[in-house]
Amino acid sequence: MGKVYHLDLAKKDIQGARIALMPGDPGRSPLLAAAIAGAYGGAFSVIAKKREFTTCLTEVMGKKVLVTSTGIGGPSTSIAVDELAQLGVKTFIRAGTTGAIQENINDGECVITTAAVRLEGASTHYAPLEYPAVASFEVVSALISGAKKAGVGYHTGVTASSDTFYPGEERTDSFMEYKLRRFKGATAEWRALHVLNYEMEAATLLTMTSAFGLKGGCVTGVVNRGSTGRITAESLRKGEENVISLAVAALQFLVQE
Questions:
Q1: Parallel, antiparallel, or unpaired: how do β-strands 19-22 and 91-100 relate?
Q2: Torsion over CA: 57, 91, 128, 83 (sign)
Q3: Is the pTM of this model over 0.90?
């Protein structure tokens, strides 16, 4: 097997890595990899950069670990997950940012997703809508242990994954002031159903990993109030720092498992 097309990686490049952390932002890949290297006394290298996909290779307790960005949304996430699976990766963890829709969740805290509402379309190319988007129990457990180790406040529960940032999350700052009927009141409904947050990739990743017989999880740092809140420099800093700390700490438990 040669290189997979979009990630520009071959099996030899990943050196047997079986775990991948997956931020959305390609600029966050080296930040996350550097944090892993610093925490576990190793180093990291950028091994591929193509389009929205930046991949770094690092090591945790003698095991190689990848950090591969997905870009924004389900379609590009599906490419990253599919191609990493082709290369032999077995565990996939989204580590990104999110907007909370429950009042008890504060900026800077993290949401550990146990399942996702499939408001996107990419996952339907891998499994019908009746198929649930659920996280691996082992990954959720490791993320909770990581949160406790890192001292990061966290919430566990259901996430809503939308195809769009503005109308799909019923945001009030969209250029298009009119809301389509199917989105009017959507946030209040998801809140009443105890959905914790909005983001754009978890449902795709979790559906795919379950359908593939692999392990998937998602942890996100809260950077704003979903549907209404502005993202400030301070809220972004807090959300990014805490999700990185949590994800890095969780790797110890995943590697030991």
A1: parallel
A2: positive
A3: yes
pLDDT at 170: 94
Q: Which two tokens stand for residue 24?
A: 């959305």
Cα distance between residue 68 and residue 23, in whole Å: 7
Q: What is the 3-state secondary structure (H, E, C) of 176-190?
A: CCCCCCCCCCHHHHH
Instruction: Tell me whether residue 198 is in a domain.
Output: yes
Tell me which residues are annotated as active site.
Answer: 6, 83, 171, 225
Strand segments (E) across 120-256:
133-134, 154-162, 195-199, 215-225
Query: Which residue, among 126, 145, 41, has the nearest Cα to 82 in the 3D structure?
Result: 126
Strand partners, 95: 219
Give the range of the structural domain holding residue 101, as residue numbers without chain letter. 11-256
The CATH number of the domain holding residue 142 is 3.40.50.1580
Structural domain includes residue 2: no
Among all chains, which residue has been given the structure tokens 């019923």? 170
With respect to residue 3, please indicate whether it lies within any of the assigned structural domains.
no
Give the residue ranges of the chain where pLDDT is below 50: none
Q: How many domains does the chain have?
A: 1
Tell whether 66 is covered by a domain. Answer: yes
Distance CA 132, CA 220 (A): 20
Tokens of 126: 């891998």
**pLDDT (0 to 100) of residue 72:** 98
